[in-house]
Fold each of these.
Amino acid sequence: MANQNGETNLAVLTAGWIKQNPTFVQVLGMCPVLAVSTSAENALGMGLATLGVLAISNLFISFVRNIIPNEIRIPVYISIIAAFVTMVNLLMHGYTYSLWVSLGIYIPLIVVNCVPLGRAEAFASKHGPWKSFLDGLGMGIGFLGAIMLIGITRELFDAGTIFGYHIWSSAYNVFVVALPPGAFLVIGLYMGLFRYIGKMRSQKKVQGDESK
Amino acid sequence: MANHVKIALILTTVMVVIGVILAGVYLMTYTPIVKADLNAKFEAIKFVLTDQTTGQLLVNQDEIPKTIDQLNAKIWKSNSSGVLYSNPKLPGYVLSPAYLFKGKDGSNIYVLTGYGIGFGGRVVTVASFIQQSDGKFFENAIDVIDFANETPGLGAKINDPDVRSRFFDIPNSGFKDGIRVNKDADLFPLPSNYKSEIPTYKKEGIVVTSDVMTGATITPRSVANTLNAMYEFLEKEVK
Amino acid sequence: MNANFGELFALMFSAMLVYNFLLSRFLGMCSFFGVSQKIDTAVGMSIAVIFVMVVSGISAWVLNLLLVAWHIEFLQILVFVLVIAALVQFIEIFVKKTNPVLYNALGIYLPLITTNCAVLGVVFLNLNQNYDFLQTIFNTVGSALGYALAIILFASIRERLSIDELPPVFEGMPAAFITAFVLSMGFMAFNGMIKA
């Protein structure tokens, strides 16, 4: 990524929301998106945990980027990320017990979620702390949004509820959505939908330009 | 060579710094974690000590443990291996420690923790058995406390209130030959009037789950096996 | 935990088919979608994963004994990730020296494995389940074979699919996800293999 200092802070922050969304566009860090998106609450917990790790580890990696020799940068990045994941794991165990139980082994696995290491390598190792923090935050928000969207959809079609609040009767339920295969289906359909919207938009733009 | 030493030194420093910071966070969160683990246990015990039809506690309010010492005072049986009873044929296991509470009516209420093998590993259940005046056991309620490896949407529904409640209030007669889920008892598909028959089925040791847990048999079967092991353990130890 | 060999094989097959890492546990998804366009690359990745998974599964089990003995379990995540990273590096150097042909075939996949959650996932699952040494080995081997089976099947379907005409908005990734959905449904049928 050859983005230089010309990029505004706002552009850095918002890049991960839609244009470079880690889930739907880059297709990175899919394990938690698929595995813990069975309910909106789990998705929110996982999204926030990942967001925190992403933003803070990006910040720290950016701080140390100039004193770490190139040969050992990957092990150092991984250990920094692992340190923050351990902290999140301990904090969640202590303060949000039931969420911690239902997220299970997927919290330790944030370490090997490709998004934090990918952002460390692609962005934080080349940019200053403030921008890296914003990048981590933006990517985290993009990740949170994606996992929430899938979590809400799956909970709605599984139990007819969102965050436990009743929305519609179980008659509309599509059983398969809550099953493991359902996760693939929901994401695949959303990806197709977003592409369709993107295509419609660009077509409209072309038409608009022509009519001028 | 000097470069290698430098790299090794930097790497070591980073690891030591991270290790020390983590140790700090660990110490900071140590108390809350112990508390959270205990609280979860207290919640489960309180839940199974509640009469599920009336919502009333089966024991006096002050009998419900609030600290680790109060809980330890209720230990009935424990051992160092961690497993009090095992029946590998089911398979079902009873974990240490087992607790004994005195009910309001003076009856003995045994609170046991055990596990069976579910779809993705252990399914841990806390259950309460009331010893009635005739010496027979009545299983009051269960709380499934660990089902992290069960399939979302299928087996992971095991602790949903409407699924869990199918394992409440099973009388002694049901345990005589072991309880089983309705699919294993050739009660599938269910007759149309099955809802009103559920208490009758419980007397025969049949737990109806196929309507509330479509497609999942392994997880409820593991809970049934856990309860069977608990019953065998009580029969062996109490009489 | 005195499991006989029949039970161990049951454990291995259920890890391979029923709790398939890719299709029912959702671990190792990056590589599942990333290197499955061609059968060749999928096979290369599978061999690398089998190798690293088995070696790191065993070493993590041994290391955990030390961590528990010294009461520093909270360093688990850090230690295991570093062990995997170091192992990958070590294997890379070793293969490069001893077998250049294999190195050329596997070279590019090895570094990717460090961030493959399937490897760390199997380590944590083994620990969560309190498996003894033999159970750890069989479960790890089964998981690794299951990974290989799923990704090679998936790559074969995608390779065939790439020459088909698809609705334009679904070409590429969306179609891959729908394919994974169908494959995952197929693997759910293995559920019936488990009998308590």
Amino acid sequence: MHFSKTYAQLLLTLPPEFRNNAFEYRKLKQLINQIVFELDSLGLAPSFLRSLHDHGPEMVSRMSRNITDGTLTVDSESMSGASHRQTIVYEIVWNSSVLQPRLRLSSSSPSDVPIHRNSIPSTIQPVCHVNLPIPERSLSHITQALLHTPIIFGDEMSLINHSMESDQPDDLIIPLPSDMAFFQLLTSTLSSLSGYLNMLEQGFNPVLTTLAASISSAARPASSSAPRSFSPYSLAADHSMSLCPGPGGKSDLCTWREIFRLYVEAEVFESVSESTRGERSIEEVEKHLELFKGHVQEKKEYLVFPRSREAFAVFLNLNLFILNVKKFQLANSEATRKILKKHTKRTTLPIPSCLQERDASTPTASSCQLALITRPSKSLPRLLVQAIGEVLLPIIPHIDDYSCLICASIAFKPIRLCCGHFFCVRCLVKMQRRRMADCPMCRAHTVLQANPSNVDYGLLNLMADWFPIESREKQHANEREVVQEQLEALGITDARICRIM
Amino acid sequence: MALPKRIIKETERLVADPAPGITAAPHEDNLRYFDVTIQGPDGSPFQNGVFHLELFLPEEYPMSPPKVRFLTKIYHPNIDKLGRICLDILKDKWSPALQIRTVLLSIQALLSAPNPDDPLATDVAKHYKENEKDAQRVSREWTEKYASQ
């Protein structure tokens, strides 16, 4: 299927506001046809240009990286061997914020190269150009064609001026109006597109913040649903009381935590596994989004508050939106690539590589000026996914941030060593008994110094508040383990006896 | 005795998201015993070799380190004839925050960077110190002979 058709079909699946900012792929194609017609009338039919490629020495594609002083480096290799060679150069100049493609016919002796064009006025600087060495007799053929077709250029005829570039008086400069129209349409499309994507990004963040606020209001910690029964832990407090959240306290905390856990595990947009790390393809994203929806189906029934259910719908929509942006952006970059490829294929005017560079790893003055490659350095869907990870997910504390590295359960009760690392009390007791002195994280000799004053009450309160169930379970497990150890110390090793107690 | 939560979690991740060039699968009848393979790192004399190891988590784990041994013969200054490995984190530098995964990654790194100054196989270490090129040639030969799939 033709790409223009595929592209049009994809646009139909996207919301209409995307469509209004899409590529005018057909129009660009028509312009390419016009360029071919234009070249034809110049006596530079693509088939002729192609034969130059095939027979001449290797085509030279050059671009001036260093736009500030206008110095052009010339591949002298390709010029060697010819005493007097005429060349036709396809160059694109940046002139009063418009990309102007043109052909330069020059007959220069090798002594003229490398050419230093320091004298070029700063407004007209070739950004890149391509050399097509041509046999001597062909040039006259072209010049003749030129003389016979002044009509094409109309009032731009004056531009074909021998003395336009003072340092190369023999050069013929042929502007290519259709080609210019092509680049103008392409650059304006790309720049309006990047403006549109910026707008989308700016609109996304407030929605996300509102959503975060509404979820946090529904997923409150234990203390907020039963404010009176909560008493903060301290050395003096009665510990048995504060672990029980008030009865009847409603909160969607656990459900939201579960939903977010499933979301993170689904790795919808980006994989974090060792073998497939990175951004997923469209198909993969769709698959993983479906998987997430399937897993979450049951969980979301437990959402108590209507505002939680609404928030969940908004959350799903945000993900669909990111998926659409991803589709749109991918299709557009494909469209750019395809249309430039078509341009090269049909006109045989090679587009210099600097216009096609996709990553801005080597940002130069020239590449900054070329609106063609003003693609965002980071993909928008990626930024949006990051925003979800930074704004939304952290509103509900994640158990992994509070688990003990040694036993992999919640670090309850948390003991903070002098080096700053925390572990659960049971694991540290075991380490002390074995006289293991070094902190498992940093090897500082802090373990044996730990005593009851190292209990981190702030952290302990937070855990009891945000992870009431997990904390309670860990507390019970700890108590069982202590009883078991005491029995073992007494010489009773049968675990079943312990359960009866 | 039930398997501690930590071992269950580690096993799950090892199977679901293995580290590049490393596999570790627990025995069905003993979940503390793992069959391990490590690919010889690129650029080392062990390149293209696949080395089999056994790994056992003692009752005390993670308070004491896992016991790891090469089953495939290997010509390496820090690994002896019996496959025992001289690696500080498996001995006195063990920390309960280390995991099966990190241990196996360390062993993989040891293949890239042999340390003849802290030898276990003294003859191999001597060979490596006196004529590294020739020792590496032998390592390559052994890899070809014993560790090719």
Amino acid sequence: MNRSQRTAAFIASRLASVALTIVGATLLLFLMVRLVPGDFTSVMLGPRATPELRAQITHDMGLDRNMIEQLWLFASRAATGNFGEDVVSRRPILDIVLDVIPNTLALAFSALALALIVGIPIGVIAALKPGSWLDSGLALLSISFITTPTLVVSVILFLIFAIGLHWLPVAGAGEPGDIADRLRHLILPSVALALGWVGYISRLVRAALLDTLAELHVRTMRAYGVSEYRIVGLYALKLALVPVVSILGIGLGDLIGSSVVVEIIFARSGIGSLIFNSIAQRNYPVVQACVVFIVAFYIVANLVVDMINALLDPRISGARR
Amino acid sequence: MRMKLDRRTFLAGSSALAILPYVSFARAADRTNPIIALDADIGNLDPGNRVGTTEGNIIRSVCQTLVRFEPGKTTWTNDAAKEIKQISDTEFVFELNPGQMFTGGFGEMTADDVKYSFDRYINGDKNGKKLAYADDLKALKSVEVTGKYTGKLILKHPSAALWLIGICDASGAILSKKAIEQLGDKIATTLIGSGPMTLKEWRPKEQFVLAANPDYKGPYKAHFEAITGKIIPERKTSFLSYQAKELDFTAFDADQLDTAKGLPDTRVIDIPGIDYTWIGINVQRGDLADLKVRQAIRWAIDVDAIIQGAYSGASSRAKTLLAPGLLGNWADAPLYTRDLAKAKALLVETGKTGLTFTFTCLNDATSLAVAQIAQANLAEVGIMLTINAMDSGAYWALGADDAGKDLELTLIAYTSKFDPSFQTQWFLASQIGLWNWQRWNNPEFDKLHQEGLETLDKAKREEIYIKMQKLLDESASCIWVTHGRHFFVDAAWLKPMFLPNGKDWQFEFFDKA
């Protein structure tokens, strides 16, 4: 097998495992949400939920069928992108989910970008001066970022920048079509969400870069008089970023999960807050549709990360020989 | 294309970012139409299948009803109706104003539209399915059309509640028959009305915009060109947004009262609620079936401490089911101030010791604080409480069928309407296994409830509802906690308007101060 054949085989096997994982995770979550006690009609209508209405809505949601039938109905519809109709608003569930996904993706990607833009330089600076006061200070800063809950960061940020300085808005995602307004609404939530990952990435980059800088080929380059800037910027950092790329997939998943808190605090519509509210209301069809999207996104993100790693380091795809 | 980040680009970008905040700041200062916060999104705009107060408030401002609540009052005057005449205890004739046009080109309102709108509550929707709010017009037997603009409402029995709960409220919204037939299921997301405002825009989970309806022919023209409602489920966030001048009006929690009072250019509005929160005791459950045990619990629980500890002292204490201001409020209801000696004496009389019960409540901070205070209070008389806190999904399903048999003490909060019959209905024997979580069964109470529904004389009704509350009091099945309180902040230039419960907002009457 030549290299391109090995890469193709690697991609094919990863795609197959992705499909299996999506199906497995979705089925598992389908069963799990049904173990949660509670009743949608009672939550939505309170004392107006008469037995007649309960039966009617349970029927509309398909919850009066047996589990196998429900599962089959859900799986067969989901395979064609049809998640049914929301029993409250009568809107297609797919539309409800697609309405909010761009907001969550914008939030997660901007937070990730911010974490990389800030976290990598911090890690590099710390690695260049190991054991110094600067290194200790940056370590303290990074650990503080990691350990401060997103909730606390969010509150502090909007107390300072929205209430105190009146610079940035607190709530919502901004006017559609007004890019400046959307960006302004994105700044505080992104920073709140990114801060923990700034800490993670900086620590990871520092450790990886220190390892790389201690390797023989770096010593050889130094011996040949290559400047420290070239060594770090062109060679060592590239190698040190491999573990960072590896955690990006997990990072994106984590950011989407953490976005629940941020979306609720900043009153942004998004998939996190949609899931949260739908679970509270026991609106299972909406929860299931959201879960399918998140699982698919998470797995695809990890697949992309694997591909990038395989391209960066051919040993990863070649290890299957 | 490759992007180059040179010094000039960096400076230009930084300057743009620095200016960005001020763009928004200027916008906030220049507003002429209000932006307000609502804690729930629109769920379903079909008046008969609405799910929350947000839709109710929108429907009342977008649709016409035969008669409309006056600003801030529960009295009403004609809106879509030119005239309504009572011709017997169970018959009313009405005549509509001509020329009242539905939006979206659905034509003029006629008596056929009134019949069609109300028949949905009697017969169900196009598929025969019962509407969620069908009981609001339960007393209505039929609607007869006698002319293009005239018709007759025929009731099953005399009913004072029908107007207050049904016809004046969102359930009484007159819809366009043509629009409903054409829209089908889309009526859940499309509201066609003929009222003072129109639903100009709705971005689910984000905001809606109500605009003044230029074609409205009734007497209540909207004062603002537009009102924007932002969906902000967290009160703390909406209060902070108000402080950041992004909003002109929002509700806030009692614990923020001092902060609210110190805000510049702000009016703080404080409206006593009419809802009711109580600790319900299951009278069919084990040792709780003993009246003296229930009475002992009532004497042992310190409701005043609950008001201070769980409600920040901002809500007043409830003495009975019906709040002050409502017809049938029992002003002389006994106030059970904590008396440990009486509680202990009652327990001695029962001969029961080592009592342990479960206290079930929602898992929010206020409910948990109530539960913990009750737990500490009852421990002092030797009753041990286990707290079972759960999320709303599980909690609201608790009373259904046989599951309710296992409930012991439960903290319950129900919303109210302006007619007392709406509140008393949940304590009927027929509600056991549904929403009567005390499982209290009193035939006299049930009989009085029916009498109250069918009596038109105000003084007699008052007497009936007081008698019903006395029966509830004798049962010691309910420990009344509070009727709640609503707090709002609004920009000094804005004058919002609510019905006296503080929850039903009248967007059509929002005005400049």
